[in-house]
Amino acid sequence: MPPIVKSIEQLRKELRTKERLVKRLQAKRNKVLAAVAKIDRRIAAISGAGLPGRGRGRKPAPGLGAGNGRRRRRRASGKPLVNYVHAVLKKAKGPMRVKDVASAVIKRGYKTHSKDFYGIVASTLRDKTKFARVGRGKYKPAA
Fold this sequence. Notes:
Elements: H1 8-47, H2 81-91, E1 96-97, H3 98-107, H4 117-125, E2 131-135, E3 138-141
Antiparallel strand pairs: 1-3, 2-3
Helix pairs in contact: 2-3, 3-4
C-alpha cells in the first residue's frame, strides 16, 4: 500500500485543527485546576489546616507556584548581606580582600547555606555606589 501524500495546504489545515483542539483542552484544564484549588481552599478553611506542601496555609510567592520545581528561599539571617559587608569594611583599618570580607562577615554572625559564599560577597562588592575597588581584589567603603 503506497503512503498517503498530503498537500501542504492539507497539512496546514490539519495543524490548525489540532492547535484549536489543544487550546480548548488547555482552557478546560485551567478551569478544572481552578475548581480544584477552590475546593482545596475550602477544605483548608474548614479543617483549619494549611494546604498540603505549603506550610501553614501561606500563599506561594508570585511565580513560585506548585509544580515548577523551585522553592521559596528566605534570607539566612535578619539583616541583608550588604549591611554586614559595609560594617566590616568600615571597621577595617584599610582595604580588604574578598575572602577576608567573607570570613569577617560570617564571624559577625551572618548565617549562610551557600556553597559559593565567596562569589556572593564578590558580587555584592561590585556595587560601585557602596564600595570602592582600590586594587585587584581589594575593596573599601565608598566615600
